[in-house]
Amino acid sequence: MKRYLYTPGPVMIPESTLLEMAHPIIHHRTPQFSAIFAETLKKLKWLFQTEGDVLVMASTGTGGMEASVTNFLSPGDKAIYVNAGKFGERWDKIFKAYGIEGIELTAEWGQAIDIAVVQKALDDHPDAKGVYIQASETSTGVAHPIEAIAKLTAQRENTILVVDAITALGAFDVPMDKWGIDVMISGSQKALMLPPGLSVVGVSEKAWKLNETATCPHFYFDLATERKKHYKNDTTNFTSAVTLIIGLNHNLGLMQEEGLENLFARTEKMAAATRAGLEAIGIKLFAPDAPAASVTSAWVPEGIDGKAFVKSMRDDLGVAVAGGQDPYKGKIFRVSHMGYLCEWDVYNSLTAIEKGLASFGYNVVMGTAAGAAAKVFNG
Amino acid sequence: MKRYLYTPGPVMIPESTLLEMAHPIIHHRTPQFSAIFAETLKKLKWLFQTEGDVLVMASTGTGGMEASVTNFLSPGDKAIYVNAGKFGERWDKIFKAYGIEGIELTAEWGQAIDIAVVQKALDDHPDAKGVYIQASETSTGVAHPIEAIAKLTAQRENTILVVDAITALGAFDVPMDKWGIDVMISGSQKALMLPPGLSVVGVSEKAWKLNETATCPHFYFDLATERKKHYKNDTTNFTSAVTLIIGLNHNLGLMQEEGLENLFARTEKMAAATRAGLEAIGIKLFAPDAPAASVTSAWVPEGIDGKAFVKSMRDDLGVAVAGGQDPYKGKIFRVSHMGYLCEWDVYNSLTAIEKGLASFGYNVVMGTAAGAAAKVFNG
After folding, report:
1. Contact between A100 and A129 (Cβ < 8 Å)
2. Is the model's pLDDT at A379 over the cut of 90?
3. Of A198, A205, A184, whose CA–CA distance to A252 is shortest?
4. CA-CA distances (angstroms) from residue B233 to A198, B4, B26, B130?
5. Are A187 and A199 in contact (CB under 8 A)?
6. H/E stretch holding A46
7. Chain-chain contact of B196 with A94 (C-beta, under 8 angstroms)
8. Which of A13, A242, A244 sits opposite B10 (nearest CB)?
């Protein structure tokens, strides 16, 4: 069966990348690899839109999240975090593991955080060392107001803004330096179009200053040592994930060919077209107020078992979308717009969703969603 | 230029594995991937020779080493470690990061630890919670006496034996259950014949007991949670390194086809042949008393710049061997026998070493080393 992967990570990997990574492996402690690595770091700075340091480690994005806690905070420190989904929750789990006092700000799943809530928390807790948040909460398809929050943290000398951009980087505009984000994290299997196994972390000077006094224990995820190795020796502290880094360098090249503006416009158009298509067939969006361009979430129509629907899409139709997580398991589904996708993928996914829903008794005229999506693409 | 990689990790990857990993990616939270993962875990238990749990995480082997500290010890705990090379040193760095009191036992680089020294340390420190050691110290090519040490720790209810088998697992016999090893660690880019990016950790019941009371902080490297996810849900706690795990499953299949006994005999024969070949051309072995089958280390002849020699081997001859590390940089070189290698690779590497040495003025009759090696292969 021909298969399409429209899940919000892993996403489909370009054929040229798969072949690039299938070349015989080279050793990481060589001038050959160092040249590739140095090139990759330059391109990453371009993608992060930062003059600061971007670091690459062999782990999933969660490793990058942990590093963004343990390298900047000390046990007993206070940090604000936004919990509006599965990945927002994760901050607290990491905080608890390292003795950080988390100040929780919540929004309903499907809603973005209210900027006034963040403002109040910062005022109430001037000693909070950081604000930890997702740019795109993958579990709900919500984009949080990062630019506005960055304006608040930028005014505070001792509070950094840490942004999990795992499903944002390379999908929509989160300019690290321009907005004043201090730590920004991503992972390889999202808009970077790679297999899972790499985390990338951008770090500002303000964050490095905090790093100097941070005492949370860490060894494998040691950003200061990685900084030295990356930028003085063109290498990583421990064995480099050679194959993934070679793939990353290749994919960043593809992204540079397209250009950031085009990349973001393409992603946003695919998201808008998907939302229009879904609404045209009566599907309610899960995050209508603040949808992320990287992933569209929508309610499974009442009376349909969401788990069975997602399973049937994948196994019967060959078109994988993601289900909901935790409280929304079986209730919502999610479609990715990250990476190696174009207009035709939107028609594919929408038409498959129509067929999938129809097979569960949903009343839909096939082609309706694609028709509505086409209007978005064709203006 | 045709290139050969005889470094002790990364090692050459079978062509079939490269192609297997170049298939379109699949999602990790699917029955399809879970079936592969469950199969992989079974095969890993076979390779570890254990009925216990083997866990797979997205990190390099060092992540596995860190996990073997933070999941079993508490700050203030005492642990014995053997420092006889670069990787032995690493235990102490991890201990320091997490507030463990390390009891250091040393041997010269190139020597194995004296079992009497371990015995004495265990007697002097009955409160030591663990003995941390390398099965094969990659930086020196030495095999430590793991079986004898396991006999000592097995008698002690509250002391676990933690073995870094990163360049041992799949290269020579380190039967986890039979010898009574409590925690055993490996990494993907060694005898597992994969790109870097996976660590694998085997854990005994005795170690799990210690895990229950261990308080060193950890989140990403959480073995108890991984155990549940691995063995109850056929998945990983965080995003699975899908591609590497698929490659791992494939490679474990290749290893099972060959059989453990044949695999170890092939590796040992390649190592013995390499040692014989090097000695036949007057090269002194660096670890003659306790050579590991996985990697042969030897002195660069006096008067030759070891760094230039290794560089010339790689860049002029296309045959990469590794140089020495830290105090032995430029003084020794190292040749791997792990993974996808056979008799012909031994002749290749030895003859290239002859040619490389000759180009630096060393007096050698080409073919001498291969001739001596052939005697080992042909009995």
Report:
1. no
2. no
3. A198
4. 24, 40, 17, 30
5. yes
6. helix A31-48
7. no
8. A242
Q: Does B235 touch chain A (CB under 8 A)?
A: no
Do B208 and B51 meet the contact criterion of CB atoms below 8 Å apart? no
Among A12, A19, A58, the residue with its CB nearest the CB of B197 is A58
Q: Which two tokens stand for residue A289?
A: 């107020």
Dihedral sign computed on CA atoms, order A340, A344, A347, A351: negative
What pLDDT, on the 0 to 100 scale, is given for residue B379? 82
First to last CA, chain A: 34
CB–CB contact A10 B28 (8 Å): yes
What number is the average pLDDT over the span B204-228?
98
Per-residue model confidence as pLDDT tens digits over B248-278: 999 999 999 999 999 999 999 999 999 999 9
Strand order in the sheet with A130-134: A53-58, A198-203, A183-187, A160-164, A130-134, A78-83, A101-106
Cα–Cα–Cα angle for B164, B336, A243, rounded to 5 degrees: 80
CA distance linking residue B43 with residue A193, whole number of Å: 29
A residues 238-257 lying closer than 8 A (beta carbon) to B: 238-244
Task: Show which of residues 69-128 on chain B sit within 8 Å of chain A, judged by CB atoms.
Answer: 93-94, 97-99
The A residues from 147 to 176 touching B (CB cutoff 8 Å) are none
CA angle, B202 then B208 then B212, to 5°: 145
**Tokens for B74?**
């508490």
For the segment A82-103, the average pLDDT, to the nearest whole number, is 97
- HSE-CB of B274 using CA atoms within 13 angstroms: 38
- Which chain B residues have a beta carbon less than 8 Å from that of A58? 58-60, 63, 196-197
Q: Give the whole-angstrom CA distance, residue B140 versus residue B328.
A: 9
Tokens representing A256 are 């540079």
Once rounded to an integer, what is the mean pLDDT over residues B172-190?
98
User: pTM value?
Assistant: 0.98
pLDDT, average across residues B293-309: 98
* DSSP 3-state of B27: coil
